Amino acid sequence: MKKVLCLGAGLVARPYIHYLSENGFHVLVASRTKEKAERLIKGCENAEALAFNIAKDDNLLEELTAKVDLVCSLLPYTYHVKAAKVAIKHKKPFCTTSYISDEMKALEKDAKSAGVLLLNECGVDPGIDHMSAMKIIDNVHDNGGKIASFTSFTGGLPAPDSNNNPYGYKLSWSPRGVLLAGRNDAHFLRDGKDVKIPGAELFENYELMEVPGIGTFEGYPNRDSMSYIDIYNIPETKTMLRGTFRNVGWCETLDKIADLGLLDIEERSLDGITYAAMIQELTSAGSNDIKEAVAKFCKIDINHQIITRLEWLGLFEERLIPSGINTRLDALCHLFEEKMQYTPGERDMIVMHHEFIVEYPGKKQKITSTLIDYGIPNGDSSMSRTVALPVAIASRMILEGRINLTGVYRPIIPEIYEPILEELAGLDIALEEHTMDL
C-alpha cells in the first residue's frame, strides 16, 4: 500500500486524509498537536497520527519523507519550501495548495534533476479557479478565438441561511490571513489600462457585483493579477482582474478598521490595556465618548452601521486584551476568532465567478462560469472540501502514475486539470457555464 505524508492537521486537512484513505492509500498525518491529527483520522482505516513540529523536527521530517511515496504540505505557506527541499532530496513528489513563491520556483532545476513533481496552487483559489479558467481559455484558443477580457472573483462566505452577523462573514480560514490580505497592494489590467491600487486604498476600490442565482457581493482586487496574463497564456487580453468576494458592508468597515490602525503588525506591549483604551489611544479620544471619537476620526455619522459593527465586535468594551498578544492586528484577530465562528449546524459556501469576453472572426461572446458550493451542516465545510479535494485527487493521480511531470507546476495544463475537474464534478463540485452572443 502506497503511503502519503500529510503535513498539518488544520482546517482543510480532513477531506484530504479521508479521500486518500478511502481510495486505498495509507496516510501519515503529522501535526504539532497529535490529538488534533487523531481527531481528523477518526473513521479512517488507513491513517495514523503523529506529533511533528516542522520548525524543529528536521530529522523526523527526513525520516518520514524517506518512508512515504508522496508528501503534501497543508502547513502555513512559509514552511512549504523546507518540506519540498526534503522531498526532492528523497526523490518524492510534493503537493500543496498555496501560491508558488519565488523560493519554490527556484527549486525547478533541482526537482527536474531528481525526477519529481512539485505541484502547487491545487486548492480552490488558487486551484479550481485556474483549472476552470484554463478549460475555457484552451477551448477558445483551440477554436481560433481570442480572450478580450477576463475577470475572476472568489469568496468563502457564510451560506445565506447562516449569514447572521453584521459583518456577513465567518471564519473558515485563519483570521490573520483574512485581515492581512487587506494590506496588500493590487495591480491589474482593465480596458487596456494598467491599474495600481495601494494597500491603504484597497477597500475603497470595491464594486458591487451580481452573481446569478445567489445575489449581490462586493468585489475587490487581489494582489497581482498581471502575472496571470502570461500564466494563462492570454497576451491578447485587455482586461485581467482577479479578486475577492465579500458580503455588502465588509469593505467600508475594513477600510475604517485599517484607518484606525487595527491592522498594524508592529510589536508593542498591550498588557493591562483594554480594547476601549486601545481605541481611545488610536483616536486620541481622551475621556470623550468612544463612539463619538471613532465616528469623528473615521469621518462618519455616529449612527453609521460601521459603528454598530465595531461595537458588536467588542472594540469599545472595557475588557482586557488577552495576555501574550503583542500587536493590534492580533488583538483584532482575537475578537474575530471569538465572534465569527460557525455554530453547530451552520454552513459556509464558496462562490466563484469568471467572466470572459471572447472574440472570434465575425462574432463576439460573453462566457460565464460559476461555482456555488455549500458546506455540509455538522460535516465538512465547503472551504475544506474545495481546498482539499483537488490536491487529494492530484495526489492520487501522481501515485497511480497518471501524472508524469517533473519540475514546479500549477494545474493549468489539460493533463492535470481535465481529470481533476471531471472527478470534482462527480463529487458535486462543478462550475456552471453559460455562453451568450454579444
Comma- or semicolon-separated keywords:
438 residues, alpha/beta, Rossmann fold, seven-stranded parallel beta sheet, 24% strand
Reconstruct the topology from this structure.
Blueprint: E1 3-7, H1 13-22, E2 26-31, H2 34-40, E3 47-51, H3 58-66, E4 70-73, H4 80-89, E5 94-96, H5 102-105, H6 108-114, E6 117-119, H7 128-142, E7 146-158, H8 175-180, E8 186-190, E9 193-197, E10 207-211, E11 215-221, H9 227-231, E12 239-246, H10 250-259, H11 275-283, H12 290-298, H13 305-313, H14 328-339, E13 348-360, E14 363-374, H15 382-399, E15 407-409, H16 414-426, E16 432-437
Parallel strand pairs: 1-2, 1-4, 2-3, 4-5, 5-6, 6-15, 7-12
Antiparallel strand pairs: 7-13, 8-9, 10-11, 11-12, 13-14, 14-16
Description:
With 438 residues, this protein is an alpha/beta fold. It has a domain at 3-125 and 383-429: Rossmann fold, CATH 3.40.50. The chain contains 16 helices and 16 strands. The longest helix has 18 residues, at 382-399.
Continuous helix count: 16
User: Which band does the percent of strand residues land in?
Assistant: 15-25%
Low-confidence stretches: none
The oligomeric state of the chains shown is: single chain
Instruction: Record the strand order, biggest sheet.
Output: 3-2-1-4-5-6-15
CATH topology of the domain at 3-125 and 383-429: Rossmann fold
> What's the mean pLDDT score?
95
Termini Cα gap: 54 Å
What kind of sheet is the major sheet? Answer: 7 strands, parallel
Q: Please tell me how large the radius of gyration is.
A: 23 Å
Helix content: 25-40%
Q: Can you tell me the CATH class of the domain at 3-125 and 383-429?
A: Alpha Beta
Q: What's the overall geometry?
A: globular
The strand count comes to 16
- The CATH homologous superfamily of the domain at 3-125 and 383-429 is called NAD(P)-binding Rossmann-like Domain
CATH architecture of the domain at 3-125 and 383-429: 3-Layer(aba) Sandwich
Global structural class: alpha/beta
